[in-house]
Amino acid sequence: MALGVKTKLTPIDVLNKALEIELELGRVRHEKWGSRLIDIDLIFYDDIVVDMGAELQIPHPQMQYRKFVLEPLAEIAPDYIHPGLKITVREVLERLRDNLSVSKI
Length: 105
Description:
By secondary structure, the chain is mainly alpha-helical. It has helices at residues 11-24, 67-76, 89-95; strands spanning 50-51, 57-58. It has a two-stranded antiparallel sheet.
């Protein structure tokens, strides 16, 4: 699922709020890349680039390789220009070599 919001929160505040929501919904962090009940990622924040190492990176450093991120994102923001790649979300999706099928419920 992709969601676009307007906020006055800073990127780190948005991240902290997302982590709070995950915790409220029952997420327990056992292992990196492991199975999880919920995972909220901050993909973009306006057109800024943030690099706080392992704590926060915007744009999300793996988003351009993940069809399950790009397909819903392309539905709500196909013409948004990735601030690092300098191409639209639609173009990132078109160039993707991910055979994973993404389904809507």
